[in-house]
Structures
1.
Amino acid sequence: MKKMYPLVGMTSAAMILAACATDEGTNDEQLDDPITESDEEVADADEPEDSSDHHQTAEEIIKAAIAAEEERQSFSMHSVMTMGIDASVDEDIPEEEDGEAEEREFIEYSYSHEDGTVSTRNETIVDGEPTEYTAGDSEHTLFYTEGDDVAYRVEQFEIEEDPADVNPMANQFEQFLEEYEVELVGEEEVNGFMSYHITFSDDVEVRHYWIEQETYEIVKMDNEHEDNPFRIGLDVLEFEESIDYDEAFFKLEDVLPEDVEIEDRDQDEHLEQELEDSLDDLDEDQ
């Protein structure tokens, strides 16, 4: 899937819970009994209006989500990632850090072209900090931070597969189905989306996923861990399929200043600089 948060790990399933068996409700004697009109009316009243969705297993829903992602040509998404510490897991965590949470807001756009290439645009928003933009195609990714006079263009990593076929979400889910227990908890409305609530769990951890029932998009993620106090969650606020393609928009022409300098960087140099900047940010926070 073309998303900015593949590091929101999904835990998995070594065992798939079977769908609940339905009670046939008949035997030889009942078949021999005459059926009255009132009996038929009662039977019709007991039959769900649409039983197909209610009998999907967790595995079937996950496979449907993978299929929907592979078929999706384009989308836009607005989401919020929350990261924080749960001090109830570790008594050594300072009290002032308990419940401290950082929010990162993401606005993403992705468009798969007929030739197999993919154009992406992502905006990362943190309160009190300049917005960070990235835009990519099959050859380069452009990085720009609001207010800077330089943008960086980095050559894409080479991959053997067609970019449109790369699907990290499918790889994660398939791994989870092999390694963890999966369960369909039920149907819930979250963030305005009617969703299937699915969990992946082992002895110490539970990962929660809410999958929207029409598009099969993940609209919420959360985690619990008995030993790790770090918590990370994701809430999708808006999701739209089938967006229009605008070449200028996917090249950040609406946000780049006219006099901005575009500097080419190789992959290693860019990664080293990103790591250095992250370490500087950590030092400033301490």
2.
Amino acid sequence: MLTPDVIKVVATPDFWIEAEFETGETRRFDMRPYLDFPAYAELKESGVFMRAHVENGTVAWREDIDLSPDTLYLRGEKSKMLDSI
């Protein structure tokens, strides 16, 4: 099965990602366990995490910090999107 692309994303102040996929499904994903990994450590800096956006079907913060749609889709919890989208 091919993982669908992310089309919308909301970052929350408590380091969760709410992602909507092109299928209309949504997933909620806790980034806190990942923030101690060097690749994601910068996201702990003030305001950086909240700059999450969709780039080429993936959640990204900068060109060198992103999160695979596979990870979000397969490990995320099913959810309803936040009203802020």
3.
Amino acid sequence: MNMLKKILITATAILSVICYSTTAAFAAGFDVNNDDSVNVNDVTFLQNEISNFNDKTDYDLNNDGRVDVNDISTLQIEISNNDIKNIEANTKLSVTTNEYKKNVGDTVTFSITTNNAISDITYSSSDSSVAKIVSSDKNTVKVKVNKVGSATVTAKQCSKSISVKFNVEKAKCIDISEWNGDINFNKVRKAGVTCVIIRAGYGKDPNQEDNEFQKYYRQAKAAGLNVGAYWYSYATSVDAAKAEVKNCMKTIGGKEFDLPVFLDVEEYRQAILPKRTLTDIIKTFCNGMRDNGFDSGLYSAKSMLMDSAYPDEISSNYLIWLAAPNESYNKLPYFVDIHQYDWYGRVDGINDKTDLNYIYNLNY
């Protein structure tokens, strides 16, 4: 009988994680006690018959020519099978919100309510470049929206599914440094700004952290803004770019960003470098950020990028944040992800003028 219990436990454990797509009725032969239902009472009845050495052929449920504990195992599996079919047929999935309107850079976490505990829920996105599934557990999924557009995230359990639509618009973003003074980030957020890119510091030498970076970072996070950073570069060689990576990491190490860390390239001394040299400087810094776990990209003026580096090589590997305040986004190069469209913008919560940007894409 201990062997019998082991067989039954094993059968039940296997079935507990499986979904069935059919709901076929029991064969009448499994109703061994003839009470017009098939359940645990049939198992008890069959156990007694076998214990009394009854080898009636009607009890040979697995059709192996014998009546033994294997027939009890077959009966138990069939009962478990039917229970799961019934559960699956009545599975119901629901969410509190079926549609989200978000801005590029936002993250949404939502839960699935289900009455079915026999199987995990799986998730998929119709376009992961728009709505990317960052993580999920049994009933919760975290989605990051990375590009203007629409996408649907679908949760599926057994044969049942439910979908949530994401409509994603460009994000309004400010970039700031210590020169912006005191900022009321709650007012900034209420003014419609959803993203901020903060200068972390500049150059390769010690003590060149932006004086307001730590405060800005804490306050912007607390206000619910999506936060990124930039590092102002003076590098004229690959070795200097490596030193800037190390210096930047002293400031941003351990921070969590919603947006990338950008290298700010705009010095004249860099513009007159050979294109190959400047391109390698940019790649060195961006790769250094990635090696430390951060997404990365380049900030520069249109003329600087197009005339002093290899733009196709850079844009195929990193995000491009372009300063072009006198041009519309539609007239910019196809690879521009963030457009700095104003250097003299006004935003509630900031006393003086500030740079304004639109973020269209965070995929590279």
